[in-house]
Design a protein that fits this description.
115 residues; alpha/beta; 3 helices; 39% helix; globular
Length: 115
């Protein structure tokens, strides 16, 4: 209550990041030793089970809501998505995540900036 009207939460999201201890660029660790390492590290729960780019649209929305969307719904404080982005190419992993993420921002009515 003392911070109401004085606090803005800034968040960053990318396809290759994720909740908890994320495995950066885990989506590219598919074959050979890298693929085995990914399965072992996630299987032992050293890293989160999925990055944002691995999530279905429904799962991504649930995760974003549990992290900061609930603050918007409760009007506890503004949330500014101050950093997110994607590489070019409509069929790649990053861009597919980007499209899903922008839909989530619209559904949550979140404020954002991108460059």
């Amino acid at each position: 209550p003392r911070l109401r009207g004085r606090l803005i939460l800034g968040v960053h999201h990318y396809s290759w990041t994720g909740p908890g201890r994320y495995l950066a660029f885990g989506h590219s660790m598919v074959h050979g030793l890298a693929g085995l390492a990914r399965r072992v590290l996630r299987g032992l729960r050293i890293f989160s089970q999925e990055n944002y780019g691995d999530m279905s649209p429904t799962r991504q929305m649930q995760e974003l809501f549990s992290q900061w969307g609930f603050l918007l719904e409760a009007q506890a404080c503004p949330v500014w998505v101050s950093e997110f982005g994607s590489s070019l190419g409509e069929e790649n992993y990053d861009f597919q995540w980007f499209k899903r993420f922008v839909e989530c921002l619209g559904t949550l009515d979140a404020d954002f900036a991108y460059w």
